[in-house]
Amino acid sequence: MVGAAVAGLAAVSALIPVLQALGGRHAKDGVQPAHFAVVGEALLWTLEQGRAERWPPEVQAAWAQTYGTVQSVMEPALVGAAEAAAEKEEDKGKEAMLQEGDAAGGEAPAAQQPGAQV
Q1: Lowest CB count within 10 Å: 14, 92, 114, 116, which one?
Q2: The 3-state secondary structure of the chain, one letter per residue
Q3: Rounded to the nearest 10 degrees, what angle do helices 57-103 and 34-50 cross at?
Q4: In this structure, is the dihedral angle defined by the CA atoms of residues 24, 15, 45 and 37, taken in order, positive or negative?
Q5: 62 vs 54, 94, 102, CA distance in Å?
Q6: Model confidence over 66-114: pLDDT tens digits?
Q7: What is the pLDDT of residue 97?
């Protein structure tokens, strides 16, 4: 992911849809918005360890900015995809309840009938 981001810096506009799609796919894996900060810290720490003598403040700042850009595109896509998936699941649940009502002779499930105690 970061390699593609760094390679795509010359054409950021082409990189944005790639990162948005990647953020959406991360939602399916259960990634949470808070994970981005943890991954960013781990990435910068790892790069610093591997490049200790070649890790001046301007290189660290450039990598931090690159990851920040990646995060600023992927995180909203992740949140949007997670919300869309939750709405889809909610719609499936409503559809299943309607089908239960149809199977029961058109009556809504007991929990949905007026005055029903749940």
Answers
A1: 114
A2: CHHHHHHHHHHHHHHHHHHHHHHHHHHHCCCCCHHHHHHHHHHHHHHHHHCHHHCCHHHHHHHHHHHHHHHHHHHHHHHHHHHHHHHHHHHHHHHHHHHHHHHCCCCCCHHHCCCCCC
A3: 150
A4: negative
A5: 13, 48, 60
A6: 999 999 999 999 999 999 999 987 877 777 677 776 666 655 555 555 5
A7: 73
Question: Is residue 30 within 8 Å of residue 81, measured between CB atoms?
Answer: no
Which pLDDT score is estimated for 42? Answer: 97
Q: If you count them, how many residues does the chain have?
A: 118
pTM: 0.69
Average pLDDT, the chain: 84
Distance of alpha carbon 50 from alpha carbon 65, whole angstroms: 19
